[in-house]
Amino acid sequence: MHLILVGATGLVGSGVLHNMLTNNSVTAISILSRRPVPMAKGHPKANVILHADFRTYPTNVLDQLKGASGCVWALGVSQNDVSKDIYEEITVDYPIAAGRAFSSLASAFKFVYVSGEGATLSPGIFTPYFGKIKGHAESELLKLSTLQEYSSLKPYSLRPGAVDPKQHQEIHEWIPKGKGFKAVVSPPLLAVVRTVGPSMVSPTRDLGRVLVELAMGDGERLDGVGVSGEGRTISNTGMRRLAGL
């Protein structure tokens, strides 16, 4: 099976890429990236396509994606690192543009959007900014799939909790290192969450596997604990259930 990965050099994307590279059912991986992807270098089933503008997908790019039946969209940025305009462009505009373009690649194209706990389709006055924007992206993907022109699009939005690579040693050398405040605060905070709220943790090995399985699946609506949004929104609880945790 041919899958697309966007955001391969981030924390979540590294976990996804490791699963794709070691998953015998994945026969081809097209990685869209602004820069080289060291983990994929030299791997026979990985094709890194250097792509600068995630708002457009010219013919020469789409030609390389032919045969793909699913995508994991792990591209993202912290709201604290960019302006609001840029955050909304990356979080909403980029995946919507990709959903439009990729829908033509298969009769049932699975588009798996990595969102985050705190996102909501029904924001209120107390909803954090990132939750509103990620929820808006989820909503727009659902709306897009209802249009006749893009009816082949089968979107899922998965909302990880505290993403934890501790037990995923194979990706440690590839994941981005925190800088400044993040480097000081994140490891101790994650250690606390592991202890007092393990159900809020998203281990990268299991998260990557579930994201890939959704991209490889039949695109039908899900049900069960932790699933909402017309059967296409999976909370961290739902992810952990699907992973058998």
Q: How many DSSP E strands?
A: 10
Gyration radius over CA: 17 Å
Please give the largest β-sheet. Answer: 8 strands, mixed
Distance between the termini: 26 Å
Strand portion, in percent?
15-25%
Order of helices and strands: EHEEHEHEHEEHEHEEH
Widest sheet, order of strands:
3-2-1-4-5-6-10-9
Helical region count?
7
Description:
The strands form two sheets. Strands 3-2-1-4-5-6-10-9 form an eight-stranded mixed beta sheet, with helices on both faces. It has helices spanning 11-22, 59-65, 84-102, 129-146, 181-196, 204-216, 236-243, and strands at 2-6, 28-33, 46-50, 68-73, 109-114, 153-158, 162-164, 201-203, 227-228, 233-234. The protein has seven helices and ten strands. Strand 5, helix 4 (129-146) and strand 6 form a beta-alpha-beta unit. By secondary structure, it is an alpha/beta fold.
In short:
The chain is an alpha/beta fold. The chain has helices at residues 11-22, 59-65, 84-102, 129-146, 181-196, 204-216, 236-243; strands at 2-6, 28-33, 46-50, 68-73, 109-114, 153-158, 162-164, 201-203, 227-228, 233-234.
Descriptive terms for the model:
245 residues, alpha/beta
Topology (elements, then pairings):
Layout: E1 2-6, H1 11-22, E2 28-33, E3 46-50, H2 59-65, E4 68-73, H3 84-102, E5 109-114, H4 129-146, E6 153-158, E7 162-164, H5 181-196, E8 201-203, H6 204-216, E9 227-228, E10 233-234, H7 236-243
Parallel strand pairs: 1-2, 1-4, 2-3, 4-5, 5-6, 6-10, 7-8
Antiparallel strand pairs: 9-10
Helix pairs in contact: 1-6, 3-4, 6-7
